[in-house]
Amino acid sequence: MKPVDGIDNEIKSSALGLIGNTPIVALDRLHPGPGRILAKCEFMNPGASIKCRSSLYMIQRAIESGELKPGQPVVEVTSGNQGCGLAVVCAVLGHHLTVTMSKGNSVQRCIHMEALGAKCIRVPQAEGTYGNVTVNDVKAAEEVGLKIVEETSAYYVNQFNNDANSQSHYCTTGPELWRQTGQHVDAFVATVGTAGTFTGVSKYLKEKNPNIKTYVVEPVGAEAIKGEPITKPLHLLQGSGYGCVPNLFHFEYMDETLSVTDEEVIEYKKLIGEKEGLYVGYTSAANVAAAVKLLQSGKLAEDAWVVTVLYDTGLKYTPVPQELTS
Question: At what angle do helices 81-93 and 51-65 cross, to 10 degrees?
Answer without folding.
Answer: 50
